[in-house]
Write a structure and sequence with these properties.
The chain is an alpha+beta fold. It is built from 26 helices and 30 strands. The protein has an eight-stranded mixed sheet, with no helix packed on it. Strands 16, 17, 18, 19, 20 and 21 form a six-stranded mixed sheet that branches. A four-stranded antiparallel sheet has the order 9-10-15-12, with no helix packed on it. The longest helix is centred in the C-terminal third of the chain and has 30 residues, at about 820-845. The model has no long low-confidence stretch (mean pLDDT about 95).
Length: about 850
């Protein structure tokens, strides 16, 4: 009979549990190797003939089992490749009760961005989902929480950071030996080490908790903002949870090459540099908001994930959805003028887009092994999960929702929990049927399209699952917590409805004629709305009466109806034409995003030119009014509106006047003139000028990029290199992909940039097909990057492209991205069908325009 560890879905038996790891690891940074010795203190619930540890590519040396005065060596050590374990077999049963296991081992650094790896001058770890087993022989599943007492031996003169404060430092045979204090109980994926020539901000305390932010020395001037965010949000999080921070310190570190955005290791949070380091004097507001959101997300995890941890990866969403929602909530409290919930709407849009596919998945889905866990880090887990929590909070009320969260934290402190534990706590606190609401939204794929029809003062509502593919139907239902907002003779009113049935009639409160009605007030619901023609006309006529979030939803929902064949693209363009004097930057971003899709995918040749001219006529007057130069004391909203209009008029409409304005400003900016471009214009202006740029400008960006200490500037120049439309320069940028110019962390973005280049697309796509293994090889096998490379192929446009993508992925599947493959193919096939269906409609509509 096969041993259970021969199955890749193997899960550790719960009869043997670690209580404490006492480990010493010696790192050789030049040879990229390590050695370790550890004692794992164990508890055996019953006698056992074997102990199973996780380990990948580790050479185990001497192993000794101890119980009381008894010592035993295993009869055999058998590595099991499929389950990433090693089985220690003993001749006779090991006794139940407390015991310990001494293990010595050696191993090598990873070439990719997982386990322990080298990122330039820094050695760093990344263990989530299941890569602690690449450095420590361990019980590497989230339910196996234990205390960790770590010692690290490294070459002298380097900064060594771990989860806990340093207890002592000493010299040991020419090496620096750093011993950390013992941690709280932690799952193995939350353990971290960072070693390198790092410098930190001065230590500052929040209610006794020391906080520091670290970087390479040349980037030390970029650490202040991330430090300030942590100092501002930590007390707010402690207040929300009603629990003090548990992990003795907060160290935040910018890592020069990093797969994800950041990682919430307890007490030692690691970040991609662009998600932590910036200069507020020159950083666009979008970058500042993103850093604040990421820092707050990771700090929220210190409670939701680190203090109370999921039992298994199927409840990953408990960590990620909560931290996503919490980050926006807390940053919005700290900086209300940033209007973070409008940014949340943009994030939510990506989840609505993904969740309208047949190949979507529930927020809580089956996860059989660590590889499948890696595929769960997507917009459904994060953004849909966050949106559903927001919707439930809106239904229960802020106070009862927070009390439920606090109860959940107290009940499961230091332990593990499942989703039902959260629903029970929320239900008790709110005295509401939370489980009915939550189970439908978390356990069921997709979301409803709610149809709304006004008949006098009666609102007729019906729901049906929304698919973006025309003609697909199914009959699932949801309990939909709706907030209606409308204006009648008595003024503007709100009314709450829980839509449980396929259809219902709602009597509207108030009196007089209903002037307009929105069926998703504040856009807090995770559903789309389809209005009948009269209701839609009322909204379009009174669009200024709607909140910005509601105007965004109006455009987004109408676009979704076009995609699914339930509305004409002419009607969408007529609606878009009413937004010419729109002043809200977030609404403009939504408008420009929809119009950019049409320009990029649905029109060609003369129609493309006509469409650009129409966009210019619609939005250039707004840019003219606001101008390119910021006035003294100007609000953030005006700056962001200008940036959206520059993207629209210069980027999308390709206005020669906008290019003529941008060119000298970019040239002055490159010469060091900080006033040449208001920071929020940098991305759009650099991209626009690069697109029409020559070899001298290409060379300037190429030379500047690696020397730039600011990660956002470095990324701006890197992405600009993908945008040059001179065919020779487009080809040159393609060659850079296979060089060290593009860091591992940036390969997927670079692929997407090259595929978006109008003149270089076909040659790059031909190269990708010919050199597919090399293209994937640049990812260092990082699952997240592999998925994003597959997703980038969704940028392609034609039926021929679609057939080529299918053939490529069929002949050379990417096992780490099976879900992403299905979603990319489904989305691309819909985009191709939309192009074939709507291209002629856009053409006919354009011909009717003045």
């Amino acid at each position: 009979m096969a041993h259970p560890t021969e199955d890749k879905n193997f899960r550790l038996p719960t009869t043997i549990r670690p209580r404490r790891y006492v480990a010493t690891v010696t790192l050789d940074l030049d040879a990229r190797t390590f050695s370790g010795q550890q004692t794992i203190e164990l508890e055996l619930a019953e006698p056992a003939r074997e102990i199973i540890l996780h380990a990948i590519s580790l050479q185990l040396g001497e192993v000794t089992f101890r119980a009381g005065s008894e010592q035993r060596k295993p009869a055999s050590l058998q590595p099991m490749t499929k389950s990433e374990t090693v089985v220690l077999r003993f001749d006779t049963p090991l006794p139940a009760g407390p015991a310990s296991l001494d293990v010595a081992w050696t191993g090598r650094f990873m070439e990719g961005l997982r386990g322990i790896y080298q990122a330039g001058k820094v050695a760093a770890t990344q263990f989530e989902a299941a890569d602690a087993r690449r450095l420590f022989p361990s019980f590497d599943e989230p339910a196996f929480k234990a205390k960790w007492a770590l010692t690290v031996r490294v070459p002298p003169g380097l900064t060594v950071l771990g989860n806990a404060p340093v207890r002592k430092e000493e010299q040991d045979g020419g090496l620096q030996k750093v011993t950390f204090q013992e941690t709280e109980v932690l799952s193995s994926y939350l353990i971290a080490l960072v070693v390198g020539p790092l410098v930190g901000t001065a230590e500052q305390k929040v209610e006794g908790v020391p906080v520091r932010t670290w970087s390479l020395p040349e980037k030390a001037h970029l650490t202040r903002f991330g430090q300030d965010v942590a100092l501002a949000v930590l007390p707010r999080l402690q207040d929300y949870f009603g629990l003090p921070y548990a992990f003795t310190k907060v160290d935040q570190v910018g890592i020069p090459d990093f797969e994800a955005g950041a990682m919430e290791n307890a007490g030692l949070i690691t970040y991609r540099e662009v998600a932590l380091l910036l200069d507020p004097a020159t950083a666009p507001l979008s970058v500042q908001k993103r850093v604040a959101e990421v820092v707050t997300h990771e700090l929220a995890h210190q409670w939701f994930g680190n203090w109370v941890t999921m039992v298994w990866w199927d409840d990953l969403w408990l960590n990620e959805a909560f931290a996503t929602w919490m980050a926006f909530k807390i940053v919005d409290q700290w900086r209300p003028e940033w209007r973070m919930w409008l940014d949340f709407d943009t994030h939510r849009a990506s989840a609505l887009h993904l969740d309208a596919l047949k190949s979507t998945h529930p927020i809580h889905g089956e996860v059989r092994n660590a590889a499948e866990a890696s595929e769960s880090f997507d917009a459904i887990t994060y953004e849909k999960g966050g949106a559903v929590l927001r919707m439930i909070e809106g239904f229960l009320g802020e106070g009862p929702f927070r009390e439920g969260i606090r109860q959940y934290m107290r009940t499961h402190a230091r332990g593990n929990a499942v989703k039902e534990d959260l629903w029970n706590a929320l239900g008790k606190a709110a005295q509401q049927p939370v489980e009915e609401l939550a189970t439908a939204w978390v356990g069921q794929s997709g979301f409803p399209m709610v149809s709304a029809r006004l008949d006098g003062r009666t609102l007729l509502l019906s729901q049906r699952r929304f698919y973006s593919e025309p003609g697909v139907q199914s009959d699932e239902k949801w309990p939909v917590p709706m907030v209606l907002r409308y204006e009648d003779g008595s003024g503007v009113r709100e009314q709450r409805v829980l839509l449980r049935d396929a259809q219902t009639a709602v009597k509207l409160e108030g009196s007089g004629e209903v002037k307009w009605l929105t069926a998703n007030a504040g856009s807090t619901g995770f559903y789309r709305v389809s209005y009948d023609k009269p209701a839609m006309e009322k909204l379009a006529t009174n669009v200024k009466a709607l909140a910005p979030s509601e105007r965004i939803s109006l455009l987004a929902d109408q676009w979704a109806l076009v995609r699914s064949g339930q509305a004409s693209i002419g009607d969408l363009l007529d609606l878009a034409g009413r937004f010419g004097d729109e002043e809200d930057d977030s609404v403009l971003d939504e408008l420009v995003g929809r119009l950019a899709y049409i320009e990029g995918r649905l029109v060609d040749g003369e129609d493309q030119e006509r469409f650009r001219r129409w966009v210019g006529r619609l939005l250039a007057p707004g840019l003219k009014r606001v101008g390119w130069q910021a006035a003294a004391g100007e609000s953030d909203q005006v700056k962001l509106r200008r940036a959206a209009l520059v993207r629209a008029v210069g980027g999308l409409a390709r206005s020669p006047e906008a290019l003529a304005e941008a060119r000298p400003r970019v040239a002055r900016m490159l010469e060091g003139d900080r006033d040449a471009l208001e920071p929020n214009l940098l991305d759009a202006a650099v991209a626009m000028v690069a697109r029409a740029g020559d070899s001298a400008l290409f060379e300037t960006f190429l030379q500047r990029m690696p020397k730039e200490p600011d990660p956002a500037t470095q990324r701006r120049y890197l992405m600009a290199l993908t945008g040059f439309e001179d065919p020779a320069l487009a080809e040159r940028s393609q060659g850079l992909y296979f060089s060290d110019t593009v860091k591992t962390q940036d390969v997927a973005s670079f692929v997407a940039g090259l595929l978006a280049n109008r003149t270089g697309r076909e040659t790059w796509w031909a190269q990708m097909q010919k050199r597919w293994k090399d293209v994937l090889g640049r990812s260092g096998s990082a699952p997240m990057l592999l998925r994003r490379i597959v997703e980038a192929m969704g940028i392609l446009r034609t039926r021929e492209h679609l057939e080529q993508v299918k053939a490529l992925l069929q002949a050379n599947p990417v096992p780490e991205a099976l879900q992403a493959t299905a979603q990319t193919l489904e989305r691309l096939s819909q985009d191709v069908a939309l192009r074939e269906r709507c291209g002629p409609e856009v053409s006919a509509w354009l011909k009717k325009q003045p």
